[in-house]
Amino acid sequence: MTKKEEKTDTEITKEEIETDQSEQENLQEELEKATAQAAEYLDGWQRTQAEFSNYKKRQETERAQMMVLASAGLLYKLLPVVDDFERALSTMPPHLDQLTWSEGILMIKHKLDAILESEGVKPIETAGQAFDPHYHEAVTHEEAPGYEEDQIIGQVQKGYTLGERVLRPALVRVAKAPAAQPEQNNDTTEDKE
After folding, report:
1. What is the pTM of this model?
2. Where are the domains positioned within the chain?
């Protein structure tokens, strides 16, 4: 082999190397673009997946709220029946409470209470409580010895909650501060005599 042939082989190799390097750079650029595009598609897919998950949760919450509101209307309509049962049982003469028909009425009342309880309806406590306008509705404000101001004196009608929501506020009598007594000046009455 002559020197000329050796040079040519070397030059071809350099050209091939440069061509290979250029192809590698092109391939590297294409790989980076494809990787960036794949990351963009993955990010878009993940966002869509999260939005869909949030949509499903929101729909479930709204459906549950609609069920509660639908049952709240019916439960609210049953409360006067409960009130009537309680009034009837509280005024029943003691000698009648052992009769079978009165026991039947009491059992019906217990079943109605059990249905309300199973639906999440609970009575609002009033005995010894402070007046809370979220749960109580004041029917009267009265001066009552032995009670602090805004303390509940008595309950006129039971109130009920359904979960955290007030189904019907309790009607209550509320204590108020005694009226200020006008001070009598003994000195002025003595001067007039």
Report:
1. 0.60
2. 122-179
